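[INFO] parsing input record for Amino acid ABC transporter membrane protein 1, PAAT family (TC 3.A.1.3.-)
[DEBUG] input buffer:
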Amino acid sequence: MNAQVPDKIPFFRDPSKLSVFYQIMTLLGVVLLSYYLVSNTLANLERQSISTGFDFLGKEAAFEIGESLIDYSAADSYGRALIVGFLNTLIVSFIGITLTVLLGTVIGIARLSSNWLVAKLSAIYIEVFQDIPVLLQLFFWYAFFYEILPTPRQALAPLPGVFLCNRGLIFGVPHFHLAYIYAAIAFGAGIICVIFITRWSHKRQDESGKIFPLIRVSAVILVGAPLLAWLLGGAPAEMNVPALKGFNFKGGVTISPEFTALLLGLVLYTAAFVAEVVRAGIQSVSKGQREAAMSIGLKPAHVLNLVILPQALRVIVPPLTSQMLNLTKNSSLAVAIGYPDFVSVAGTTINQTGQAIEGVALIMIVYLIFSLSTSAYMNWYNKRIALVER
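[DEBUG] output buffer:
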């Protein structure tokens, strides 16, 4: 008896073919919609005699920027002005993320302290700074510097050569010398050396169970190597100390009120959320882990560093990444207090050139780069600390 050949499924009833068809039609619809929007926008811009493209980046900016990590003047191009804004945003984000992780970790651990006062103060900090919008916090710190702090003539001097006033934080720095370059190189080499020692110590501990004094050795390397390079370079000690001349200080380094207010607002606000992330991550580790570690004689500090935190990090890292991204994106609020970040510089550029589409596109691209870079690094770190199943 011949086997019956199944009937061929019609196209409109074949799920696999229909799914491909729907995806093609969706893609085609997106392409057509994009073409319509772009062509319509270009036609409207041409009708209103508005130039398009990025040729304006090479034209003279003709506006000053209060703070810059590189040399800049009003005679420079819009492109260089945007680079200044990019670097300003980068430095605020980098320093802010570093301080936020450190402060949030300390407060999160303190939130679980057995000391009643420490735990309550940490809880109050978290509740207060989480419930106040970050923009209001920026306004508060900005007003603190300009309304509460004294003028340069009555500047506070908490330390010799350090002054705090409504012009910002002013402090002395060493005069340039090659010895400091050598010290910086030695510090970088020390970091690389510590990374290799850390890997070796962990491997040694896994194989033999012996604990290597990693923290003390790392501290000696990171402090001793730059110090030795500084001594070999001639041990220069000349300082560029600020001095009051007229209505302001001359010399040294000045950290502006805008930068400080932005950094304080972002760090204190985001650290409250990071503290909750750290607290939740620590509490996710079962009590049996702590009890087992204490039963073999480990000190509380070793229990936290060697047993609790390594396991908690696998829970902490994903939400911590979100908080890092939030801090970077919230840095765009700097325009509200006059700090020249990328959004502020791009806004001035748009106002002068009238090329809003290109300016907004650059803002989107820059923050996309920041976000993707942070996510890529944290995803790499998350995979590195992930548990490997056997």
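[INFO] The domain at 78-149+256-385 is CATH 1.10.3720.10 (MetI-like fold).
[INFO] shutting down worker
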